[in-house]
Amino acid sequence: MANILVVDDEMGIRELLSEILGDEGHVVQLAENAQQAREARAQSRPDLVLLDIWMPDTDGVTLLKEWQRDGLLTMPVIMMSGHATIDTAVEATRIGALNFLEKPIALQKLLKAVQQGLTRNVEAPRPVVPVARINVSDTSSSVVSSAPFAATPGTYESRDFSMGNHMLQNNQHSFNNLSFDLPLREARDAFERIYFEYHLHREGGSMTRVAEKTGLERTHLYRKLKQLGVESVKYGKRGE
């Protein structure tokens, strides 16, 4: 799951891309102009940006130059346009754009470009919660899962597991019951459900802290939890 920012002044394009990328399991932010794109970039640090070239206030190439100038071009950017010339596409690539998609965008080209962009993301990968083996330094026991995941012992400090071994054992039980015979989308949803339940439990239901831990905006976090059927209220306080 990645956080993808879609910047396009056409509502139909934004909604279409949001639906397609959402079906692929990504969290999608929408911006209809450069100012909204600046704000979204500052707030959530997207993993990838789909940026339209022709927009009414500031065009996409100018915004790309701005991000490059200010050291904010830390994520892959894929340019989109239905009217751009080859020179425009070459200029955008020279500035730092990863790819260029011509509208109307074919589904397979879109998904391939997004996958390539996420694979080549220059930012350091986000930490993965170890589920196969967790050593807690202030206890005499460790929890070992039979699920086929690998982790380095001692990756997390003991304070990160202050909820105690009982919570960890519940997590282990959930992972042991995760079937690898499920279709990919169902298996992914099951994993994400466990992932968010773990963080909600660990952070006492604080949506602010869970949003920080998972790298999502609170609005997108609420939407994701609702989509997965995870009730945040049962893990403690809601909101702050």
Structural class: alpha/beta
Number of strands: 7
Number of helical runs?
9
Q: Which H/E pattern describes the elements? A: EHEHEHEHEHEEHHHH
**Most strands sheet:** 5 strands, parallel
Pfam families: HTH_8, Response_reg
Keywords: Phosphoprotein, Two-component regulatory system
Modified residues (4-aspartylphosphate): 52
Protein name: Response regulator
Describe this structure in words.
This protein has 240 residues and is of the alpha/beta class. Strands 2-1-3-4-5 form a 5-stranded parallel beta sheet, sandwiched between helices. The protein has a two-stranded antiparallel ribbon with strand order 6-7. A hairpin with a 6-residue loop joins strand 6 and strand 7. Helix 3 packs parallel to helix 4 and helix 6 packs antiparallel against helix 7. The protein starts with a strand and ends in a 12-residue tail after the last helix. About 20% of the residues have low confidence.
How is this fold's topology laid out?
Layout: E1 3-7, H1 11-23, E2 27-31, H2 34-44, E3 48-52, H3 60-69, E4 77-81, H4 86-95, E5 99-102, H5 107-119, E6 133-135, E7 142-144, H6 165-176, H7 184-202, H8 207-214, H9 218-228
Parallel strand pairs: 1-2, 1-3, 3-4, 4-5
Antiparallel strand pairs: 6-7
Keywords:
Sig_transdc_resp-reg_receiver, phosphoprotein, Homeodomain-like_sf, 240 residues, two-component regulatory system, alpha/beta, globular, two-stranded antiparallel ribbon, 9 helices, five-stranded parallel β-sheet
Short summary of the structure?
With 240 residues, this protein is of the alpha/beta class. 45% of the residues lie in helices and 12% in strands.
